[in-house]
Design goal:
The chain is α/β, with parallel strands linked by helices. The chain contains 12 helices and 8 strands.
Length: about 290
């Protein structure tokens, strides 16, 4: 059902992680965010890469605009009443761009965003060849973003991609500088083992977010394992998009080969089930 965004969603998210790790399915559209909520998700992650793939049909190389991603976030927040974190890439520019990014993303109804310390155009965090901005540049951007938060509970997460460039010591050093600059949480990207996640936890204070993507540099680690390590959030950014695309491609191939969808009837949501996800009947029940 459509509704105004949650009041102080950042506080709701913070309250959740006080009671254990918050597991966030990755969404790439309002419908996928709604589906995650209907299946019981208490919080949702909006992946910049997945939104770019879905909305533009292009790779995650900083081609999407702030307005495009904030628009998806705003519409998702109107249909799925749970706290959402959204990928804000590099903040779409320098300090003043970060300022505008925080204003627009908070206005969309999000619980928070994460900013990364890559040079733009950025690359997927699990690819080689990433370039990193200076620590001082990132500190300046974090301070700029923090300065314009309307709701103090809005969660500004600093992501560091420096593990592949500067090693664990460099990534930990940067993370601590980012905390000092006012970041509400830290997102270490591209760690190589559960031992590295444990080391990061031991040496960096405050809330931490783990990225549990697949086919990347990080081995599969469960939410319960991250909880035991002391992480507050874990995201599964592109998983649903990959599952969807595999199924859609297989369906298209069979449809074009056979000329009928008959073999897929038991693999799809029925009309009634789709309408139930969308709360179709409730729209007809409202009187003004």
């Amino acid at each position: 059902m459509i509704h105004p965004p949650l009041q102080s969603p950042g506080k709701l998210l913070r309250d959740q992680w006080e009671n254990g790790i918050v597991s966030m399915p990755g969404a790439f559209s309002p419908l996928s965010a709604l589906a995650a909520y209907k299946q019981g998700a208490k919080a949702v992650y909006l992946s910049g890469g997945a939104i770019t793939n879905n909305l533009l049909g292009m790779p995650d190389i900083a081609l999407i605009s702030l307005d495009e991603i904030a628009g998806v976030a705003s519409r998702a927040c109107q249909v799925a009443p749970v706290p959402m974190i959204c990928d804000a890439d590099t903040g779409f520019g320098e300090e003043w761009n970060v300022v505008r990014t925080v204003i627009e993303m908070e206005r969309a109804g999000l619980a928070g965003i994460h900013l990364e310390d890559q040079v733009s155009p950025k690359r997927c965090g699990h690819l080689d060849g990433k370039a990193i901005i200076s620590c001082e540049q990132m500190v300046s951007r974090i301070r700029a973003g923090v300065s314009v938060k309307r709701d103090p509970s809005f969660v500004l997460i600093a992501r560091t991609d420096s593990r592949s460039n500067e090693g664990m010591e460099g990534a930990i050093r940067r993370a601590n500088r980012y905390v000092e600059a006012g970041a509400d949480a830290i997102f270490p990207e591209g760690l190589l083992s559960i031992e590295e996640f444990a080391q990061f936890r031991a040496e960096v204070p405050g809330p931490l977010l783990a990225n549990m993507t697949e086919f990347g540099k990080t081995p599969l680690i469960s939410a319960s394992q991250f909880d035991e390590l002391g992480y507050q959030m874990v995201i599964f950014p592109v998983t649903a998009l990959r599952v969807m695309l595999k199924s859609v491609e297989e369906f298209y191939a069979e449809l074009l080969a056979t000329g009928t969808q008959a073999g897929w009837m038991d693999k799809m949501r029925t009309r009634a089930q789709l309408y139930d996800t969308l709360d179709y009947s409730q729209f007809g029940e409202v009187t003004w």
